[in-house]
Write a structure and sequence with these properties.
The protein has nine helices and eight strands. The chain is of the alpha/beta class. The structure holds cytidine-5'-monophosphate. InterPro entries: Cytidylate_kin, Cytidylate_kinase_dom, P-loop_NTPase.
Length: 227
């Protein structure tokens, strides 16, 4: 059967990655979490002291981009690929609210985007890929056979993210998570390079009132029509 490319874009915490993983597993496709790549660069920038609450050395980070090696390795136990930075598993380290608070600033840098978009294109060059992010349908895979644009209210998204962080044992408040979601929405959709926007040929899905199962069924139906 023909293998297509599925591009899923949308605002923060719309549940893109959950459904993208489910669809990829169901179809036997590769799932790529492009947000994890921006988070990996951000984590690197924090570790190297290029970014903290008081300063952001963009030039320093850009000058060191070549030394950043990001890879995905499939974890059989969890059934999805985890992200590695220079051979170190950083899957858990990149999901903190601290990384979330800096990532949109890092994702505004064109040199960072160039590097990651090139790698994302390589990862999807043979098709059979589900990739989620902010610019997958508009920049990375403009020819994707199926493009989805996920939305949900900021409050619904913040509640979901808050529950995830609490479950991990992170000490966060709902208000701080909501603020972060709103800030990222703003920066992601107003930046100069590849702002978050719905591709003209993307199908919009508002999942505020959908269960995971309903969302999965709806997307699978769209996949079947496309195949
Ligand atoms: O998807 P996730 O919320 O993990 O993405 C983290 C951040 O990475 C986003 O808020 C956005 O700033 C950036 N991003 C991006 N382009 C992508 C994926 C993520 O700019 N394709």
């Amino acid at each position: 059967m023909k293998k297509i490319t599925i591009a899923i874009d949308g605002f923060s915490s719309t549940g893109k990655s959950t459904v993208a993983k489910q669809i990829a597993n169901h179809l036997g496709y590769v799932y790529v979490d492009s947000g994890a790549m921006y988070r990996a660069v951000t984590y690197y920038a924090m570790q190297q002291g290029f970014i903290d609450v008081n300063h952001f050395d963009i030039e320093g980070l850009v000058a060191n981009l070549k030394t950043i090696d990001i890879r995905f390795k499939f974890n059989n136990k969890f059934g999805f690929a985890e992200v590695y930075l220079n051979d170190m598993n950083i899957e858990n380290d990149i999901r903190t609210l601290e990384v979330s608070s800096f990532v949109s600033k890092v994702a505004e840098i064109s040199e960072v985007r160039q590097k990651l978009v090139e790698q994302q294109k390589q990862l999807g060059k043979d098709g059979g890929v589900v990739m989620d992010g902010r610019d997958i349908g508009t920049v990375v895979f403009t020819d994707a056979e199926l493009k989805l644009f996920m939305t949900a209210s900021a409050e619904t998204r913040a509640e979901r993210r808050y529950s995830e962080l609490i479950e991990r044992g992170d000490a966060v408040t709902y208000e701080a998570v909501l603020k972060n979601v709103q800030e990222r929405d703003y920066i992601d959709s107003h930046r100069k390079d590849s702002p978050l926007t719905k591709a003209k040929d993307a199908i919009q899905i508002d999942n505020s009132n959908m269960t995971l199962q309903e969302q999965f069924d709806k997307i699978l139906e769209l996949v079947n029509v496309t195949l």
